[in-house]
Amino acid sequence: MNPKIKKIYFATQGVAVLVWWAVLFFSPEIQQYFLIPGADSLTLTAYLPADALLIGFGSLYCAARWPQVAAVRIAWLMAGAIWYLTSYLFILCALGDLPIHGPFGMTMISLAMMFMLHPDSMEERR
User: Fold this and answer.
1) Which of 19, 42, 111, 112 is the most exposed place for a label (fewest CB within 10 A)?
2) Can you tell me the distance from the alpha carbon of 55 to that of 53, in angstroms, rounded to the nearest whole number?
3) In the chain, how many domains are there?
4) Is 125 a member of any domain?
């Protein structure tokens, strides 16, 4: 896969994650649309540190440093985190515990995971 496309993808993903958390932080009334029924906002914000640091800033690092070895390794770490979240959302979706937007969120996260795990996307450059 073209390294420029990877850089654009990582930059877009990093900015989108950080903007999403900023919107949730500065507009708490929006949080209700992303909560699992019966959960409070603390449940949602528990994901903030890992999501912002690992996926948000990790993606920006990969965008700036791709295809260096460190960026590829961070991309694999992010792929594992996204896989974990995708699996978690899939289980919640199967149990019917996700709000109405759940399947959309799961679809977007699944697409991110598939893109990151594309065979051509994780070539190490030394």
Assistant:
1) 42
2) 6
3) 1
4) no
Query: Is residue 121 assigned to a domain?
Result: no
Tell me whether residue 81 is in a domain. Answer: yes
How far, in Å, CA of 54 to CA of 85, rounded? 13
Range of the structural domain that residue 17 is part of = 3-116
Please check whether residue 44 lies inside any domain of the structure. yes
User: Would you put residue 118 in left (φ > 0), alpha (ψ -120 to 50) or beta?
Assistant: beta
Rounded CA-CA distance 108/119 in Å is 19
pLDDT tens digits, one per residue of 48-93: 888 899 899 999 999 999 989 899 889 888 888 888 877 777 777 7
Distance (Å, rounded) from C-alpha 4 to C-alpha 56?
A: 19
Tokens (6 digits) for 79? 């792929």
Give me the pLDDT at residue 126, please: 47
> What's the predicted TM-score (pTM) here?
0.75
Looking at residue 119, what is its pLDDT? Answer: 55
What's the start-to-end Cα distance of the chain, in Å? 17
The set of residues, in sequence order, having a beta carbon less than 8 Å from that of 48 and lying 6+ positions away, is 21
Please state, in angstroms and rounded to a whole number, the distance separating the CA atoms of residues 117 and 123. Answer: 11
